[in-house]
Amino acid sequence: MRWSTHTDSGFDMTPMIDVVMLLIIFFLVTSQFSQSIRTPLELPHQQGQQDDEPHPGDIVVDLMADGSIRLEGEPLSMDAFLAMVSVELLHGDPNTEVLIRPDRAGQAVHLNQLCSRLSKTGVRAYRIATSPLRRQTP
Amino acid sequence: MNFAKTDSSARKSFRLPLIGMIDVFFLLLVYFIVTASLATPEDELAAALRQQNENASASDLQPQFVTVHASQGGAAYEIGGQVLHTQADLTALLEKLPKEAGVFLTVDDDAPVWAAAAALQACHDAGYEKLTYVTPK
Question: For residues A107 and B73, is the Cβ–Cβ distance under 8 A?
């Protein structure tokens, strides 16, 4: 009888746990989405540096096989992209790096052109995204 | 009869809230399924940028020069006059060379992008910390 009275008048934890779990899951899922919104690309199959250092301020650009570039999935002209990078270097962080996500099937001429123009803009280092799924076999 | 009723209600109060617990476990299961399929693993390879017409500094006395060429649908890696056809061979050769001055990497325009990444990976695997990607003028 005592237990029954306690259950009726006590604070019901179940919905609160539900809500808390939903909030936790929401934040965890949205943090995962920040990486998953990157355009699906066939990246070069390499292990990478595996340093696990986050680079939150970097500009991420997709370099398609035909040489076109995309920013957050949206096509962008090279000039517009470089203008954005130079604004970031001037008014933001001067040590901003660019993470290039190239299509592995493309030719290096596009990578060379992009790197060359980035270098002229003032970018001193870049990183290339790789997919560590399996080793490249020529 | 009265005694039996009291016993039954007391037993009820001890039951675990199974529905809430199932909700939570189900949500956890959904979360792990979603994150496992969405988070495609990616890694990175870093390199400094430099143009061919830039003057060499005093620290650039004896860097290794690696050039990536296109070769019969694949790629070849040239270093010190030697032409290598696999990434493993390039890594093995680079491991034997001095690393203090770093390595300069040049990629021919007609070489594939994956070969550029393979050369970068070979340099990193060989232990080079100063890695410079030299772009054409």
Answer: no
